[in-house]
Each structure stands twice: as structure tokens, then as C-alpha cells.
């Protein structure tokens, strides 16, 4: 399966090179395939490096058996492992949610516009009381996230570390690298969102819907497909309304839109 993915990724890259096509000009499925393949290659490269010394391949097989979540790509997870491991990863990113929301509450006094301060207070209060925010509640704050105090270039190191954990990215990097990775990751999701809006959620398979929701912060493993489609539609309405300078709001939306969303269990 991995080799088939590698061949497909090579075909896409060859097409991009021959026709001078940029990543954001690809179709949704092509973009998503390249994004996931890059993550899989990272794991494979690590295994390849540690297997270079003589007889180290025996150690690699032992490590793969002991740490399948960390070392194996999803193709090699069993169905039960897939559910269990995705639950574990979501539990890890949920640990950062209180810290991210607490930071948003602390910066409210720094917002110069009284109307924006009121909207931010209302949003934080709703979320703290377990209410799923409406799309207009979030979009009303886009100005706060385009410049001081919550613009991408104004985020503090601790907030960027918390946001990195919420995105399942390593937080153990210098501030300038954290900012660069968050910008890059959020930009890719924004580009995927535009391509997905063009394709239409209705054309996604159930698994594609679940994967798309999980990437954007929702633990979709225990939520019915239709509820996932509804949530993904809300996400796209927000994302496709944002400009590049407002992508800090999309980054925070990983928490804002997912934290109180509930769906019927299968």
C-alpha cells in the first residue's frame, strides 16, 4: 500500500513539474494525498536511518512491535488500533485546549475595539458553558486575529506551543520555527479547504469525511457520518471566508469549533 502511495505521489509531482502546477492548484484528493504521504515518509525515513547499522533491522522490528502508534503508518494499523490510536492522539491535543482558551480570555483587555471585546467575551463564555459556537460568533472576531493581539505574528511562545500540540505538531522548537510550522500547516489546511469547497463535501467517501474532520480538530471516530459532514460544512464556511492575514483565526478554530461539538455515537 505504501509503495502504491509512493507511485501516486510521484505521478502527481511529475505532473506538477511538467505543467508548472503549484500545490494549491491541485485537486483536493491530490493535495490531501501529498500531505499525508509527506507525513508517512517522515516515519519511514526514521525507521530507515535506525536500521542502517548491521543487524539493526532486528531492533527495528522489535520497536515497531512495541511502539506501533509512533512508528507505523496508518496503513499498518489494525481497525481496532486505528480507533484506539486516534483516541490517544485526540486526548493529547485536548490537553492543550484549556491553555488556549485561557490565553484568549487573558488577551480580551488588550483588544482595543469595545465591540470586539464584547464578542470575544461572549464567545469565551459560551464555550466555557459547553455551548457550540455559531459560525457568525467566530467570524465576528476575524479582525482580532489579523493583527494585535492574536495575529499570527503576535502570538507568544507559550500560546504557539499549545497550538502546536492542538495540531499534533511538536512544540519542542524555537519560537521562530514554531511560528513558521504553524503558518505552513494552517496555510495547507486553508488551501485544502478551498479545494474541498470546490469539490463539494457530498463527493467525499465516509472515510474521507472522518479523516478531514480529524485533521481539523474533531475526534470523528465516535461521531456519526452525517454529523461529521455537518461539522465539516461549518468549518468550510468559516475557512473560505478568511483571508491569508486572518489565518490565526483558522488555527484557533481547531479548538473553538470542535471543543463542544457532540454527535450521536454509532
Automatic annotation (TrEMBL):
GO cellular component, one term: mitochondrial inner membrane
Gene Ontology biological process: intracellular monoatomic cation homeostasis
InterPro entries: LETM1-like_RBD, LETM1/MDM38-like
Name of one Pfam family that matches: LETM1_RBD
Domain Letm1 RBD, residue spans: 92-266
A GO MF term: ribosome binding
Transmembrane segments: 44-67
Membrane topology category: Single-pass membrane protein
Compartments where found: Mitochondrion inner membrane
Keywords per UniProt: Membrane, Mitochondrion, Mitochondrion inner membrane, Transmembrane, Transmembrane helix
PANTHER family assigned: LETM1 DOMAIN-CONTAINING PROTEIN 1, LEUCINE ZIPPER-EF-HAND CONTAINING TRANSMEMBRANE PROTEIN
Name by which UniProt lists this protein: Letm1 domain-containing protein
